[in-house]
């Protein structure tokens, strides 16, 4: 039945869109922190998924044992040394 197929496709599209938005949000958190530390304004154009992936790949990684209560700026400076 055509209507059932259309509904199924719409449901799959909705799931895919939610998946992309979820990935985007997960990528945005550390990138927004870097922007804040560097006093840069995060623009909506910066938030396309492709650009986010490139930014995420090119940012220095924060070690897993980074102390959560330490100022992020101090952690970033420690990474640069």
From TrEMBL:
Source organism superkingdom: Bacteria
This protein's name: DUF3732 domain-containing protein
